[in-house]
Amino acid sequence: MIADFQNWSQSRQVRIETFLEERLPVADCAPERLHHAMRYAVLGGGKRVRPLLSFAAGELSNADEMRVTAVGAAVELIHAYSLVHDDLPCMDDDVLRRGKPTCHVAYDEATALLTGDSLQSLAFQLLAEQCLADSAQIQLEMIKLLAQASGSRGMAGGQAVDLASVGKSLNLPELEFMHIHKTGALIRAAVMLGARCGGQLHNEQLSSLDHFAKCVGLAFQVVDDVLDAEATTATLGKTAGKDADNGKPTYVSILGVSQARELAEKLRRDAFQSLDTFGTEAARLKQVTDFIIQREF
Question: Which terminus of the chain has fewer CB atoms gathered within 10 Å of its CB, N or C?
Answer without folding.
Answer: N
